[in-house]
Structures are given as C-alpha cells and as structure tokens.
Specification:
Layout lengths: L1 E5 L4 H12 L6 E8 L8 E6 L1 H14 L4 E12 L3 E9 L2 H18 L2 E7 L2 E4 L15
Parallel strand pairs: 1-4
Antiparallel strand pairs: 2-5, 3-4, 3-6, 4-5, 6-7
C-alpha cells in the first residue's frame, strides 16, 4: 500500500493505523523506518514531486518480492520543513528475520529507484537537488 500526503507526514497516526490494521493477522514482526528532513547546508526543508504511475509499478514489484510479508509506504508531496517526516516504510511479516532484511533492501532501493524528485527549500524557493539525486532509468533526467 502506497499513501501519498500533502506536506509533512503525521508519523504517529500513520504508524498507529498500520499497526492496528496488521497486528491481528498473526504476523510476528512489524518493522518501521521513518525518514526525517535534516537541518543541513542552509536548507529550510525539502520539497517533493512524485510520478505516481511509475511509483505504483515500482511498489507493486516490491510487494511481489515480499512473499507473504506486507510492505507499507507513505511519502510526502510538496514542502516538508526540517525535523518533519517525509517518508515512512514498514514491513509486516510472519517472521522477524524476513522483515528485517526486507525493510533494509526496500529503503535502499527506494533511494535509488523511486520516481520522487527532491528539491531543497532555500530562502522560500525550491531548488532542484541534482547533486543528491539519482538518475531514473528511462526518464531522461540528469543526463
């Protein structure tokens, strides 16, 4: 399940809703990752654009890899201030080891391949963060 929200994520509410939904399915593990916007390089926050059709396809491929586990993801669109949450991922799984491995692989692949473009917010303006971006195969960006 991919959830897209405008602005910063309500971390506690999202994780609590996911936990409440999956705790009674007899899964032995529920692992979360929370991405928080850092205060660095004079940036006031980050802003995100998302290409949802490719994101849905990428996510569906991951869900197929999960083999009995469930992957959950929430991401911000638009502006997110420093010290706020922009990304949450979770894995609910029958087994602890599978959940730990899956969350690590998922978050790393997300950073490399998810069609989400990041901008720094400096002096109230969005500036494309090209130096911290990864070329998206087939998108024609960053060539």
């Amino acid at each position: 399940m991919v959830e897209i929200y405008e602005g910063a994520l309500d971390t506690k509410a999202i994780i609590a809703a996911w936990y409440d939904k999956y705790k009674n399915i007899n899964y032995g593990a529920f692992i979360t990752f929370v991405g928080i916007v850092r205060d660095e390089n004079g940036v006031e926050g980050l802003s995100f654009d998302i290409y949802e059709p490719i994101l849905a396809q990428w996510f569906d491929e991951w869900q197929e890899k999960a083999k009995g586990a469930k992957i959950l993801m929430a991401h911000s669109r638009g502006d997110v201030a420093n010290h706020e949450t922009s990304f949450i991922a979770a894995v609910a799984s029958p087994k602890r080891r599978a959940a730990l491995e899956l969350i690590d692989e998922f978050v790393e692949d997300f950073k490399k391949k998810a069609p989400i473009w990041k901008y720094d917010i400096k002096n109230g303006e969005r500036v494309y963060a090209k130096e911290r971006s990864t070329k998206l195969l087939g998108a024609g960006l960053l060539e």
